Amino acid sequence: MIDLSNSNIYQQTISEPIIVKGIGLHSGVNTIMKLLPADIDYGIKFIRKDINDYNIVDALWSNVTNTKLSTTISNKFGISISTIEHLMSALSGLHIDNLKIEIDGPEVPIMDGSSKEFVDLIDKIPIKSLNKKRKIIKIKKELKIIDNESSVQLKPNEQFAIDFEIDFPSQVISKQSCQLQLINGNYKTDIASARTFGFEKDVDMLRSNGLALGGSLQNAVVVGDHKILNKEGLRFKDEFVRHKILDSIGDLYLAGAPIQGYFYGNKSGHRLNNLLLKSLFSDYNNFEYI
Ligand SMILES: [Zn+2]
């Protein structure tokens, strides 16, 4: 994803280490994560510090191994890191190209369920510009993945634009749509604070399957039959669809570079986002690096 209004065309990293602590949404495991500056063309890599060997996992679409409720990446030795999408979304939104992420457990902390805390922590320190231009993936052909009622699409476009629609069988959410262009840093104001969500009726089933073990009203919007259970209410009237955009921006950053084009998602999620990138990279005529 790219905010084309940003005049900085050089690669960026952070200027000093950032330490983040928190619980994993699904594993319920508490981890400490260190975000560390990285050099030109390093990309985004996770390093599992609780494992001694073969512990580096590149944040790339080709390493995605699980997309059930969150995005998990693994290296060829089976070492994995899960729920990476909100951190990846923040890195995309803030134009961080190179970053080393050390973590002492299997899952990125969920924080408040959005990418706001990652954005705030990175925003507190200066961003460091590196002496090489960013590579950008320019979409040249229209691509579409359809799965029953869900679909995702990428199209050539001079701006980066995103368009998302959801329709849940819940009177609290029902139909929502949101269109926006990433310009003038609006990721921070319009997307970053939209939280993940789940349904009260699913909690027991998820927990008995070893999922959502770290979930609470502190890190997710919980949707009941007639209202949300969070006393503080919603952060946006359409927070649900905004969170789907947040997720998609994170998943698409696994392309390894920002994408210039138009993205449309309809009732889609992590799995279709990954299939879209697989389709994109299956044919060199689909895109060019600029
Ligand atoms: Zn999410």
Describe the structure.
β14 (161-167) and β15 form a beta hairpin. The longest helix is centred in the C-terminal third of the chain and has 14 residues, at 239-252. With 290 residues, the protein is of the alpha+beta class. The protein has helices at 85-93, 116-123, 186-190, 203-208, 239-252, 270-281; strands at 10-14, 18-23, 30-37, 44-48, 56-58, 64-66, 72-74, 80-81, 99-103, 127-133, 137-139, 143-147, 150-155, 161-167, 175-181, 197-199, 221-223, 259-260, 262-266, 287-289. It is globular. The protein has two domains: 10-133, lpxc deacetylase, domain 1 (Ribosomal Protein S5, domain 2, 2-Layer Sandwich); 137-289, lpxc deacetylase, domain 1 (2-Layer Sandwich). It has six helices and 20 strands. The structure holds zinc ion. The site of zinc ion has 5 residues, from α1 and α5.
